[in-house]
Amino acid sequence: MTPDAPEVLLATGVAETRRGHWLKAAPIFQQLDASYARYGMAHRAWNPHGIFLMYVGRVREAVPALERGRAEDPLDPEIALYQGLASTVAGNFAAALAEIDRGLELEGFDTTLRTAGVLIALNKHDRVEIDKRLSALSDSDPFTHLHRGLARFMDAPDGAAAEIRHRASEANPVEKTLLAFWAAFYHDPALSLELWSQGTRSTDGLSQPLMSDVRKLPAFRDVVRELGLVDYWRAYGWSDYCRPLAGENFVCS
Hints:
By secondary structure, this protein is mainly alpha-helical. It is built from 15 helices and two strands.
């Protein structure tokens, strides 16, 4: 009855992104921007716009949208999460962790924010920061045991791959995604990509510096083709980590 209402368009756009239908989602989010403006709520368009750009790998473009979203609603912990992840991609780890800590002072997303803090510390390759973020995990968080178990190999990394594979044999999709980041941390990009492909396949993490060697694998190009991201990039603009070459070829880094 109200197909152009912001709530309807947002729910529809989110549903299409969760299915990986990026070409269908993109025009919906464009309509959402116009719909918010039409109903006098243009300020509310920044958050979903920025988050969508994060998922398609256009993080440099996402940053100003997320910053506007934070200015409009500084009490939204989800924006603190994505602002932290965007700063991670930019290599500004101090700002990333500060944003995560700001989010933890707000209500909601505590477990997700604490997990993000661990992943940012892994991107930073800072042992002191990693230990600090692991200590901050709550024993009630569902992934605390996984993170602390994998951190034991920082002094003896040769055993990390075997432990990751062992845990992956009984892991759910979310756990496999987290294990993929640990595999990347322990310099096993092939294992990381394998586990990421078996996990939630949430694309916002692909931009992180931790995944740079994963993105260089020839198989990574097959993955982003399969996900439909390449079709989206050709239509709407390329990600920060892949660029087109002559013909149908492209390279990722």
